[in-house]
Amino acid sequence: MKLCVAQIRSIKGDILQNSNTHKRLIEQAIHNGADLIVFPELSLTGYEPELANELATTPDDRRFDDFQAISDANQITICVGMPTTSDSGIRISMLIFQPHQPRQTYSKQYIHPDEEPYFSTGQGQVFLTGNATKIALAICYELSVPEHAENAAKHGAEIYIASVAKSADGVEKASKRLAEIASTYSMTVLMANNIGYCDNFEGAGKSSVWTNKGALVGQLNGTDEGILLFDTVTQELVSQENLIT
């Protein structure tokens, strides 16, 4: 199975322009044979908590139908970040488009204290299955919560993919933790981070992949948009590319 994480510089609150950038990165991933691509936290709006209430929508928003069409036509699973509405408040969510399947949503179950004024917690873990392999999804702060990775391992996950929005200091801490998750639970681990200014910090990129032994085998830089592709069968990096414009 070929897994891909995308590194993107989201334009603050511009869902249309960000969607177009997503599509260009997805096209590159498809060209390289990716089975799944995951974008950073709140990638369609940028990580902007103060705008979340204004920008939040429902998971079935027709503006995202193009992602389903691309998924169907190319047999690729696409995971994008978007604030969504719920009865309990606004959630930090990942919209999941799978070939010829109903749209799924995974909402962040553990939120950082700084996010509590803007967001409510999601309920329940979502697992994806590809080639008989179980994939656990995580959103940013969740990777720092031991119970999250433990639960993924208990449910038989072999792959752990974190969609994040982190500064340079945050990336350094997350990288150590994700390498630890990989080696402790024998899971292949990937991280998709943003670049560019958002909220009150600069996204530091360095989207990465670790083998199920905890070895770092691929990492993007901290300044450019691009994709990182990993083959779970060979446990080798397939492609590392900057965005073609």
TrEMBL record:
Domain (CN hydrolase) ranges: 1-235
* UniProt-listed Gene3D superfamilies: Carbon-nitrogen hydrolase (3.60.110.10)
One of the record's GO molecular function terms: N-carbamoylputrescine amidase activity
Quote the PANTHER family the UniProt record gives.
BETA-UREIDOPROPIONASE, NITRILASE C965.09-RELATED
Give the highest taxon in the source lineage.
Bacteria
Q: Which Pfam families match?
A: CN_hydrolase
| Keyword field contains Hydrolase | yes
In the record, which residues are listed under signal peptide? none
Give the species this sequence originates from.
Spirosoma arboris
- State what protein this is by name: Carbon-nitrogen hydrolase family protein
What is any one GO biological process for this UniProt entry? putrescine biosynthetic process from arginine
Keyword list, A-Z: Hydrolase
Key word Hydrolase present in the record? Answer: yes
